[in-house]
Amino acid sequence: MTYSIKPLLIGKLKLSKGQMTYFVDWEKEIWIPIVTWYIKAMGQNVLVDTGISPTDIQRYLYGHPYQEIQSFEQALNSVGITPGDVDIVIQTHLHFDHCGNTHKCENAKVIVQEEELKFAYSPHALFYGSYNLGFLKDLHFSIVSGDREVLPGIKVILIPGHSPGTQAVSFETKKGTAIISGFCCIKENFFPPEAMRLRWPVMAPGVSVNSLQAFDSALKIKGLADIIVPQHEMEFAEREDIP
After folding, report:
1. What CATH number labels 6-237?
2. What is the tens place of the pLDDT at every residue in 136-170?
3. If DSSP codes are grouped into helix, strand and coil, which group holds residue 10?
4. Cis peptide bond N-terminal to 243, omega within 30
5. Alpha helix locations (H) across the chain?
6. What is the H or E stretch that residue 15 is in?
7. Sign of the four-CA dihedral 60, 184, 137, 67
8. What's the pTM?
């Protein structure tokens, strides 16, 4: 089975680039997308993450600019479905900006790593603000531990570091294996500036519970993927489809 991924851009947020690139270029600001990724697979409607509503994100902005592109419902309508039509949501992790609309998918099975769910319900104080238990209420979780095939040609890959249970999502496409990174990053995390590459073949994200694990996870994804889809790279979020 081969698939095509449709990025559905919900909004964009302006942040320090260093929050993605392990503090490199901290003084530079970039727009990062808030996106849900859609795929039609085996007759089922599958989303990877669901983003967050413009109302809910306000409590987390702390002065950072945010632009709404479309609502979650409008995004799904663009591919001919409603939240109630979603069969599976794969949560790369449970930070607020990745699961804020999941509760709207009331009929969906929500695939999450066991370690991520444990941490979300009892986070370390440093990451308390990254999780919102209200977003997790009444979800139909399907809990996995480690790598797992979700559907033929679609797998989740445990890549801890950014959070304890971050998972990448691998899709077979006509151009090879495409992997949605799972952790918050841009293209430069996988293809650092030439002057850095001998020392850092990848860059860990700037926000991590374990930066060493996050670095190793980025390197793992780079080695597995024919097409890397960085979670917060605007270039990919604005595409019609991938590949």
Report:
1. 3.60.15.10
2. 999 999 999 999 999 999 999 999 999 999 999 99
3. strand
4. yes
5. 54-57, 72-77, 96-99, 114-121, 211-224, 234-237
6. strand 6-16
7. positive
8. 0.97
